[in-house]
Amino acid sequence: MNESLVTRRRALQTGLVGLGASVLLGPSAGPALAQGKEPFRFGVALPLTGSAAPFGQDQVQGLEWAVADINAQGGAGGRKLQPVIIDTQANPQIAVNVVTRLLSVERTELLITAWSAVTAAVSPIVNRNEVLALIIGANSPRIASMGDYVYTTYPLADVDVALLAKFALHEIKRKTAAVIHINDESGVYGARVFRDHFEKMGGKIVAFESYEPNATDYTGAILKLRAANPEVVHLQGNAGDSPQAVAQLRQLGLKVPITSYTAAYNPQLVAKIGSQADGLIVASLAPGKGDSPAVAKYVERWVKEKGREPNNIPVTQYVHDGTYIVKALVEHLDRQGKPLAGKNLRAAMLEVRTFDLPLTGKVTINDNHTVVKPVYLLEVKGGKFTPLKLYE
Amino acid sequence: MYDSTILAQILWTSTASAGFQILFTIAFALVLKVNKIWNFTQPALMGIAFYAMYVVVNPLDGPVLAGVALALVSTGAAAYGIERLAFATLRERSSGPIAFFIFTLVFAQFAIYVLTLVFTTEPRFMLKSMIWPMRLVAGVVVSDWDLLAIAIPAVLAAALYLFLRFARPGQFMIAVADNADLAEIYGIDKQAAFRLAMVIAAILITAAMYLFGARLALFPELTLHVMIFAVAATILGGIGNIFGAGVAALSISILQQFSVLVVDSRWQPLLVSALLFVAIVFFPQGVKFKRRPDADGRAGLPAMAGPPRPAE
């Protein structure tokens, strides 16, 4: 509670400065100059307020810890990392304003951002300004083709959502599926991935319905799903609305398994819904605490310092590790003696290409701007997420 | 294509979902009838009611009843204050309807802005759990929330009807609604009737917000969207016809949910806006059905609605 109040207060204070943006200096702003090398400032555009705030704030927390750890160990080749954090509210219009300001006023050459709709909105800006954008946590398949400077370090929907379609059809033998999705970039294109793969493999989609991002009542769409009597439901929502969608699906009598991607992998969801969430199958794209000692330590740190596990933990792991990619790029360019400009950072990423990261393991950036990672399926049983299957 | 169970489910769910909309609509129609004001401060009152309950139940970890009590007091006080300090002042200055209209809109925006600053735009759940106990009745899912959502509006609407019909203050309100100046000549305190109408509206709004918050998440700006429904229902029900507006709200809700059988669900939100458009253009006095005359030749009891008068 204190933590979110602090974050909100910071966002509000800085939001008054202009454009509703909250420009925050990272935890290590000052000491960098003492090192002799200029600190490397990079932009982080995530939701600190709004419906996605509980997730964006936790992602920022993961990033701040990574920055603090890196800086405590001497930074990126002696250069301190300094994130400039701005609030997008996960809203494309706001994101365009604050990212434009970030690039023109703060002059950052690298941007970390997420949320598919936000990514789609800011991609033209980063491409035009030749600023490297690392997309961490958004999963619309279109992200792969959003421009030369837009790279994801997180697998897109055609990895995990396609696999969920396969799992629903072949593993749990459901021949008919209904899809419900949020009507935004991530929802529309992610839902299409499920539909296309499910049908291609011989399954039948009996309903394909959507709900609006600014709505909280999904009764109409769910009634239509109920009328279609599917054997499985795929939910392609965002982190903020997925708990409501699952609750309303159950409250309208849909007891069939529900598949979803990382957005629904959220402790708040089971806290609010309890055992009614049983049968929810989610795809996680990062190892859990049982799979990696480093992740176990990371979760322990959350519990110790915040008294809880993070919301949407896999994405927080990716954002945390994104900082190590930034570190690797800065070190690479410093070794080459090249300026830390967006163009060079992009080139460095393609030269290094494979990064060994502490919480998510090895990742290789493909030429088609995608990455492929193992998919961990989890199922809610007895009101708890339990490992179900690993797809290497 | 659709079996009777599905149709029954849609009918049941849409009736239950209409519960809070009916209360919002009756509250709006009541103020329009008695005070002669399009009360667009209602989203502000909705926000105050919701967040009062939210604060008690969540950060303070208090019982829901205490939250409802605080919401009743704070929303009632706000409604009373709006009437006493703002509407009464505007009347004293003989302000035109546009001044009332602008004031209510500005007040609602101001309140929403303040609520957003305090509670942010994050959707909040009022209760700790989103799940209500439920059961199957002849294949239809019936939750405890559904029962409450039908019972509370039914009880409150009946109570309001009886109050307006048989209680002296209620009769005074109707008299003021029909002709405020004439009512004053007969010794009725019209200012008291205006204040009472606002406080009753606040009670209805609080009850509606409880039902809303017990199932759905809310963020401050959502109150404006919810409000459109009440406006459409009030116009369709016939301006000044409080219970006709309630029936219109129920009808729109049922129509909206049944529409999924023929159109994609993403078009559903447009339906209310389309109805509002149709109502304003084609039925500015509401949808009226011809009544069969009684034996004495009169068309039943006089409607509670009177012709709308400009704001005083």
Which SSEs are present, and which pair or pack?
The complex is a heterodimer of chains A (392) and B (312).
Chain A: H1 2-15, E1 24-25, E2 40-46, H2 53-72, E3 81-87, H3 92-106, E4 110-113, H4 116-129, E5 132-135, E6 150-152, H5 157-171, E7 176-182, H6 185-200, E8 204-211, H7 219-228, E9 232-236, H8 242-251, E10 258-260, H9 267-273, E11 280-284, H10 293-306, H11 313-336, H12 342-352, E12 354-357, E13 361-364, E14 375-381, E15 384-391
Chain B: H1 4-34, H2 42-57, H3 64-92, H4 97-119, E1 134-137, E2 140-143, H5 144-166, H6 168-178, H7 180-185, H8 190-213, H9 222-237, H10 242-258, H11 268-282
Explain what the structure shows.
Chain A is α/β, with parallel strands linked by helices and 392 residues long. Chain A has two domains: 2-155 and 295-359, 3-Layer(aba) Sandwich (Rossmann fold), CATH 3.40.50.2300; 158-284 and 375-391, Rossmann fold (3-Layer(aba) Sandwich). Chain A contains twelve helices and 15 strands. Chain A has helices at 2-15, 53-72, 92-106, 116-129, 157-171, 185-200, 219-228, 242-251, 267-273, 293-306, 313-336, 342-352, and strands spanning 24-25, 40-46, 81-87, 110-113, 132-135, 150-152, 176-182, 204-211, 232-236, 258-260, 280-284, 354-357, 361-364, 375-381, 384-391. The longest helix of chain A has 24 residues, at 313-336. Chain A is globular, with a radius of gyration of 20 Å. Chain B is mainly alpha-helical and 312 residues long. Chain B has one domain (4-121, 144-282): ABC transporter involved in vitamin B12 uptake, BtuC (Orthogonal Bundle). Chain B contains eleven helices and two strands; from the N terminus they run ααααββααααααα. Chain B has a two-stranded antiparallel ribbon. The longest helix of chain B is centred in the N-terminal third of the chain and has 31 residues, at 4-34. Chain B is globular, with a radius of gyration of 20 Å. The termini of chain B are far apart. The A-B interface holds A 1, 8, 12, 49-51, 53-54, 89, 183, 209-212, 214-217, 219-221, 223-224, 226-227, 240-241, 243-244, 247, 250-253, 272-274, 276 and B 2, 6, 9-10, 13-14, 17, 59, 117, 120-123, 125, 128-132, 134, 136, 141, 143, 145, 215-219, 221-222, 225, 256-257, 259-261, 264-266, 268-269.
